[in-house]
């Protein structure tokens, strides 16, 4: 029920004084006016209010300008009070109000239900207007059907009743005819309808809603023709569309329409036409409901990755087909960025001419190294989201597998950039920093942006654009500024904010990995043929640098001559992964040479050299002891290698040990020969001398140094 209907109207108080209720006064003049009038004693107030008590304002004590407003609204107050019994007969129709609240107009909209539009402009509250009209017609229907009740309640004739009603309809601005004859006709139409919904719909003035010309477009065929014309991606002018449609209308008995009607029809059906006119991507972004999400509660729970054509210009020089060179001052690099959605902190990046798989891997390696620098360890994120660049539909290609190994991979849907937090990272703050870069090579936003640099400024500034060789250092500076720039929401740098939250969260530390796993996931395989493990270790050429790797003594001893691959991080050559692709896999670091001259020894060198020789000594011992240990089992299981040789069934695994024992058996003395074993032909002294080993000396590893 509207406030006007709920509020008690003017009435008599003590001593037959006419007074307005507090609610009525505020409805007419506003709350501020009431307070000011009361403070200045411009009104006489009766009652305190509260707990159901009423407050009244005397009519006769009001200033003339206030009285004029009241008379314009209700007519003469004394006559109004004489008509008040009729007003008391009206019962607010809540069913009608519900009907009008939910009623949908032919244009697809609902009836206005407030006194002001979104901009504060006064408008008609049609839900209130039609509900009041229905409530009045209900009262009129009841009393005109029961004339005795009319005389019993009001003690007036039917003729007087109609005079009072028409006057009240006029002064109260009720949405039904104030003329008695037309009012009776409207009442008759209302009574002839049996269903309340039909009665309520009768009062709706449909002509007031929508464009009159648009009503000329009738029928499914007419609308289909117009939708087809308007869906053309070339976006023809409304005059062109109107001319084309009117040809159809003329030959099919339809009304001609104006360009204005075409525009109205297009605006009404914009959601239907958007996909073809603006593209599915834009339409989906505009008309599909955005899912609102809370940010990740801690670092590394959810990271985003995306590319950005960096808005910085650089000068490049390229070769032409004729052998000369050509300069360009408007080169813009591609930047691939990995951010943590916890606070948009940049974890890693890579910059290049274009986006490639290797550029993406480089960005992830950079992120891992940065995390290790901040925390002391390598940590993988829990969840990763990127766009679908470079991915196949089934997410089975190499890049998709890489993403899935890094984290739970949830790629963004096609054409919905707002789904990634990182898209919003490339916004205002991003460009504020680019504009302030000391290199003074800001390129402005992309060609579709509203904010662009003037052509004159770009030409003038291009004289001092940095060369492409300076790009890595400039980009690195930009990333550092973004990381250390205070977060506007907290006032502290995003790096401090990120690190503090990381240290406080156990979830962030769950996916810790070691160097081997990091290189296995993200490392770059050395180009060229596999290398061979020797006593000299490995000396691969990585990123144009020859590096001598420190290979453990035991690895050389057990895998001498084996071919291996080198997997490395171009940004961190201090640790590489060595593997044969099967069971051999270990992390190697650059070999630290020892001084040859004792005079060059530094603190700790003597101990380190001693340790190296001790390791060599242990390998020397293994060279002689391992074989002896391995063949002892033959005595325990009573296997005679000589017999095996004679029988021609030598087992491959025992071949080496069997041959050794056979030679010893040839020259053993009879006293120590096993029973039943026949002596072999005696060898000459020269033969024995040739077979006997030299006196064994203790192996000195320093002899190899």
Automatic annotation (TrEMBL):
Residues 693-705 have a biased composition (Acidic residues). GO terms for molecular function: nucleic acid binding. Residues 685-705 are annotated as: Disordered. It comes from the Bacteria. Coiled coil: none annotated. This is Integrase catalytic domain-containing protein. It comes from Pedobacter cryoconitis.
